[in-house]
Amino acid sequence: MSAPGQTIVGLVGQVCAGKSAVTEAFRRRGVQVYEADKNVHEIYRMPEVIEEVREMFGEFVIDPQGQVDRKALGSIVFSDAAKLKALTEQIIFPRTGEAMNGEIAKFRESKAPLMVIDAPTLLEAGRGDLCDVLVFVQAPLSRRQEWAQRRGWAPGDLERREAQMLSEDVKKKAAKATIDNVGTLEDLDRQVGVVFETLAGRINLN
User: Fold this and answer.
1) Which DSSP letter does residue 96 get?
2) pTM, to two decimals
3) Number of domains present in the structure of the chain
4) 205 in a domain, yes or no?
């Protein structure tokens, strides 16, 4: 939990619902953010991590340049809960946890009022208690499938990934606010503005 006068916000929600766009809207308002996905990209480039992934999953998930092929890796772990658990708990979560704790420490030192954590597996990693408030981000399935396709995901990848995570109902019930990504970026920004004002203490949360 954050220090008095400070609030840590955790973004949770559906896969491909637009959490990155929500994060960027908070950033434009001067909010400190931690984006786990960017951290994960850096983690996968670490030589020791490449070797650990190779030992765990074989040469199939290493590309010709000697880097982790995240698409090939995803095709394995999002179809096998045990392999996903091994990857996240043994390789990813310990390192993202360390990075997240470092960002939280910087936030506390800064005395800034608000910080946003964008970590798709925040609750799955058991780190929801680091946040004072959870905000749920949702979007229609058709839009999420379109955005997944733009990422280069194969048909069904979105559903397979979501099936390996905590249910939508669990995350939504844990959240204090919901952002519906159903319109334009301007609509999304407006909703983020309302949540920002609320969490900054300018509107009664209740």
Assistant:
1) H
2) 0.86
3) 1
4) no
